[in-house]
Amino acid sequence: MKLLVCGGAGFIGSNFVRIRVREHGDDVVVLDKLTYAGRRENLHDVIDDVRFVHGAIEDPSAVADAIDGVDAVVNFAAETHVDRSIAEPDAFVTTNGQGTYVLLEAARKAGVRYVQVSTDEVYGSIEEGSFTETSPLQPSSPYSATKTGADLLVLSYFHTYGLETLIARGSNNYGPYQYPEKLIPLMVLNALHGDKLPVYGDGMQVRNWLYVTDFGRGIGHVLEQGAAGEVYNVGGPDECPNIEVVKRIVSATGNDDSLIEYVTDRPGHDRRYSLSSEKLRGLGWEARVHFAEGLQQTVDWYRENTWWWEPIRSGDYREYYERQYGRALG
Ligand code: NAD
Ligand code: TYD
Fold it and tell me: Where is coiled-coil annotated (predicted)?
């Protein structure tokens, strides 16, 4: 299959490209703007096997170039960090909103299947039970609101124009190549450096952890077997409160709990996410990696791949960290 993977230089996109090139022999075009979160390094071992187009999804000419001759589009490209969306929502509206629109128009013109990579955050928070694909959409942050708007636009292209659209809504991902603004890599790298571990609020917020290759394979199922116009949840096998995630990282890195520091809570912080993935299981997908095993693999990967994170931790990320947490990294 010839695929256009937008945002393929980011965390989940690069893991997806690796799976499609190595396990499916796909011909892949990557379109990526290379924001702070997108790096060619994320594709280091497959970069010679793909066509790389440096451009933005909201730029119709870059999209027209990249989409030429493909069978399907998979869109990962997005601004993805909730804390950044609270501080500066602007780029979230442009990329997640306008960018999705430009891609949909190009897919409509080309007449190709379109998969939107979305998130459990569109449903908002749930105290008990799990969200299904028909649960109401109640996003809380500018990030999740712009992702919700994008999902609705995608569905409208199915209903109005008959474009073959699909949506895959994943729960919190973790694994190799995740930018260290997100909970797990932030805590792993801070713990490895003896920096404080900033836990928001009481640390009892619960996330439904999904190993990144399980999400990549789930998106592959949706792409190949999903029914046009449908939404599929892709949830992880385990849920865990943040404080427990952090304590496991403390112990996996040989530290003690004195590194943990409770800090001011995130505004509008969703308490719990939980997805039911029954519908996707019906297509034969199953998560393979449990949290205990995946977390250990992730800690090991960060420990071993200093080449990957050293330039990040000594670059612009330092300023971001100081702005966000009011203290310098060690
Ligand atoms: P990421 O922030 O690591 O990567 C985003 C990628 O998109 C980067 O390569 C970046 O350069 C690129 N990009 C950003 N703006 C762009 C633009 N305007 N044009 C072209 N490229 C652009 O994100 P991620 O964690 O890999 O998430 C990928 C997708 O999966 C997103 O759509 C996100 O909403 C969704 N998702 C993420 C998670 C998670 O836990 N990280 C969970 C569920 C769904
Ligand atoms: P994050 O990785 O930002 O993902 P999301 O907000 O999309 O779920 O955060 C995961 C959880 O960890 C969330 O409840 C917020 C919390 N968190 C902290 O407690 N401290 C931190 O420094 C970060 C980045 C997140």
Answer: none
